[in-house]
Design goal:
InterPro entries: Chloro_Bact_Ser_Proteases, PDZ, PDZ_sf, Peptidase_S1_PA, Peptidase_S1C
Radius of gyration: 37 Å
Protein name: Trypsin-like serine protease with C-terminal PDZ domain
GO biological process, one term: proteolysis
Structural class: alpha+beta
Largest sheet: 7 strands, antiparallel
Helix content: 10-25%
Distance between the termini: 108 Å
GO molecular function, one term: serine-type endopeptidase activity
CATH topology of the largest domain: Thrombin, subunit H
Number of strands: 23
Order of helices and strands: EEHHEEEHEEEEEEEEEEHEEEEHEEHEE
Keywords: Hydrolase, Membrane, Protease, Transmembrane, Transmembrane helix
Length: about 400
């Protein structure tokens, strides 16, 4: 017999009709198909609502985390805080206009005197860049050199008195100085990464030349060259330090010294200078100290009030080449008392032919290796003395 139990559908009791003769009843059945479909639809709607709600919460959380990470990343740098904001919709402006409106707020005018110039006189000698919102400003050392009074005029303070600034420290070799004014919540510039700058990039120079009427002056051009190495000799030691400069055809006037050289994003990529590379400052050739070079110097000034450079203690070294041109090195003319070279045993007339396991052919090569070390390092050295090779370990001071 065929089993029909598998095809019996779920039913519910509905109604019993009694026969007239009272002998029996008839049972009527109604399927639950309509209720079943309704329940399925409700479940589907609830599932969609839950999925949409959870997706929205998850998406909001991820977006919030990414936004927080972006803000954290932008504020993590010592130099990237309090970026100026103009409150103007810049979407339709060209990059130079946007940069000018933003960065010019962080560029100040600097006037110097020996207490014989009255406040308010338009006798500005240079520019500076606010890099910390509590009043720290970087400028060229030659802007403040030889003067006792330093007056700083903010870009939005044409009708207000200038601030008196105190000198935090300076470095004459790199021509950089840090000064400070007592003013809170200033618009600090954002320092970029000059290693990413390429020839042909847009260069925007901002400064305050020639007084209030020319404050926030903007010139634009391109980056003409990168990694222009200019050697500056310390007259006291004869040691030459090489600095990395950016070359631009954007006009840099005397009053622009200490001002900002920016990229299209409004990041400072260089500090305008007319002193370093001054012999080459001709029309269409301006120079700026690359910001990566400047960052290390600024940090050292902020920490120590000056730049502490590693020093061997060798005075006025000279390049050496033997008569047969087979031997090259650095000739030691004189050593400083109590310096690393003297304490290690280096003497006048020695010829340094190897330093830190690298063969040396010039004093610039020697100094480059020294600059890669820090004060306190002990570095192996090989010299020729009276025709004999002698090895030393020199402690850098």
């Amino acid at each position: 017999m065929k089993d029909d139990s598998r095809i019996v559908e779920d039913v519910q009791w509905h109604e019993i009709e009694t026969k007239k003769d009272g002998l029996g009843g008839k049972i009527k059945f109604r399927k639950k198909k309509d209720n079943y479909i309704f329940v399925k639809i409700c479940k589907g709607v609830i599932f969609v609502l839950i999925a949409a709600l959870s997706g929205g919460i998850t998406g909001g959380y991820i977006s919030s985390k990414k936004y927080s990470s972006a803000i954290e990343s932008n504020n993590s740098s010592f130099f990237q805080s309090n970026k100026a904001s103009t409150g103007v919709n810049n979407a339709s402006q060209n990059p130079i206009t946007r940069v000018a409106e933003t960065v010019s707020q962080s560029v100040v005018g600097i006037n110097n005197s020996n207490d014989n110039i009255l406040d308010g006189e338009n006798n500005y000698s240079g520019s500076g860049i606010i890099f910390k919102s509590d009043g720290y400003i970087v400028t060229n050392y030659h802007v403040i050199k030889g003067t006792s009074k330093h007056l700083v005029k903010l870009s939005n303070g044409k009708n207000s008195k200038p601030f008196n600034a105190k000198v935090i420290g300076y470095d004459s070799m790199s021509d950089l100085a840090v000064i400070k004014i007592d003013a809170p919540n200033l618009p600090a510039a954002v320092f970029g990464d000059s290693s990413k700058v390429q020839v042909g990039d847009t260069a925007i120079a901002i400064g305050n030349p020639l007084g209030d009427e020319f404050s926030g002056s903007v010139t634009a051009g391109i980056i003409s060259a990168v990694n222009r190495n200019i050697g500056i000799q310390d007259p006291s030691t004869g040691v030459t330090t090489t600095y990395n400069l950016l070359q631009t055809d954007a006009a840099i006037n005397p009053g622009n010294s200490g001002g900002a050289l920016c990229n299209e994003s409004g990041e400072v990529i260089g500090i305008n200078s007319l002193k370093i590379g001054a012999d080459e400052n001709v029309e269409g050739m301006g120079f700026a100290i690359s910001i990566n070079e400047a960052k290390n110097i600024i940090n050292s000034i902020m920490k120590n009030g000056r730049v502490i450079r590693p020093d061997l203690g060798i005075i006025n070294p000279e390049d050496y080449v033997s008569e047969d041109k087979k031997t090259k090195g650095v000739f030691v003319k004189q050593v400083k008392d109590d310096a690393g070279a003297q304490e290690s045993g280096i003497k006048a007339n020695d010829i340094i032919v190897e330093f830190d396991s690298v063969k040396i052919q010039s004093k610039n090569e020697l100094q480059d290796i020294v600059n890669r070390h820090k004060v306190g390092d002990s570095v192996p050295c090989k010299v020729i003395r009276n025709g004999k090779i002698i090895r030393f370990n020199i402690k850098i001071k």
